[in-house]
Amino acid sequence: MTDRERTARLPAATLERFVASVLMSLDVPAADAVRVAAYMVQADLLGYETHGVFRLRQYVNRLVAGGTSARARPCVVQETNATALVDGDNGLGHLAMDLACQLAIRKAEAEGIGWVGVRNNNHAGPLALYVRPQVEQAMMGLAAAVGSANHVAPYGGTDLLLGTNPLAIAVPAGDREPFLLDMATTVASAGKIKTLAQRGEAMPEGWMVGRDGLPLTDPTRQQEGFLLPIGGAKGYGLAVAVALLAGALNGAAVGRAVVDFSKDTGTPANTGQFVAAIDVRAFGDPAAFAAAAATLCGELEASPVLPGYDAVRLPGAGRGARRAEHLEGGLDIHPALRRELDTIAAERKIEPLPV
Predict the structure, then answer these.
(1) Bridge-based pairing state of the strands 75-79 and 83-87
(2) HEC letters along 122-177
(3) pTM above the 0.85 mark?
(4) Which residues form the domain of 258?
(5) Which site among 86, 216, 285, 355 is 20 to 30 Å from 269 CA-CA?
(6) Is residue 20 part of a domain?
(7) 88: closest CA among 53, 114, 57, 117?
(8) Rounded CA gap, 105 and 108, in Å?
(9) Which three-class secondary structure state does DSSP give residue 332?
(10) Is 215 contained in some domain?
(11) For the segment 167-217, what is each residue's pLDDT rounded down to a tens digit?
């Protein structure tokens, strides 16, 4: 086994420079490339490795084929005091979501709440990236997105008409780590399945079923079946709600109009998302709220555990510590991902990542 075939640990800054170089080689302006690269590596730092640098291949393919615009200029096309609609100009999704997040926070500062929809956009990494900034301002953050491909059938049906349609909610909890729920409305995200396929590993039963209704555990056969919604009919209903709030409301693609951004790299995706911010001060004393949230979180974590469980864990717990650890010690790059990144470097005629 060569050094390049082993799991590598690289500094976050090295990865950021590499990703930015790849994007700039595809005519993405330097400032945009640096911003998107920072978001992608931030996803890995926080432990969302299925939605970080792993996604570079998909972004490259769409930029090469013209499905994503390299020189997009996201802008606000409609606005009220508390709401806005952002058009992503078919650019790299992180750019429009960054604009939407910052705008939602500014509106919440002025009006108590800010809700910003996004249309004509693309995949933008994990939604956690766009709810954490609200917490830093002692606000609550919400975000949702229409999935970038349809992998889910309506409950009891067989047509692929829904995506994983993720939802994220972040809530400040005083001196504690914030509550941060970032979840797909399916049992597993499509990114997890793509990661397993890249690594040659099997899926657990219960993530997917084939068209015969039997469990599907080979991730390379993903196109032969359906991702299962969380909680059966309830997860299906939640996925539809996200499609309406993040897609239809903004004039973005839903249902059969959704473009599979991995398969069809040349067609604009018109992905829909929304980002919202809620200022706790609009409802009362932020310190009192933070104390109540911290108390609840502490009580949950202190609950005696069932046999077979190590501890009660809150959504988002440990992400901050993981980020600090990765910043200090570097990020692990799986050999399969390293090979893909090396291939991209060769294609774009840029320096590969160091050993």
Answers:
(1) antiparallel
(2) CCCCCHHHHCHHHHHCCEEEEEEECCCCCCECCCCCCCCCECCCCEEEEECCCCCC
(3) yes
(4) 3-186+229-286+318-348
(5) 216
(6) yes
(7) 117
(8) 5
(9) strand
(10) no
(11) 999 999 988 999 999 999 999 888 888 888 888 898 998 899 888 888 889
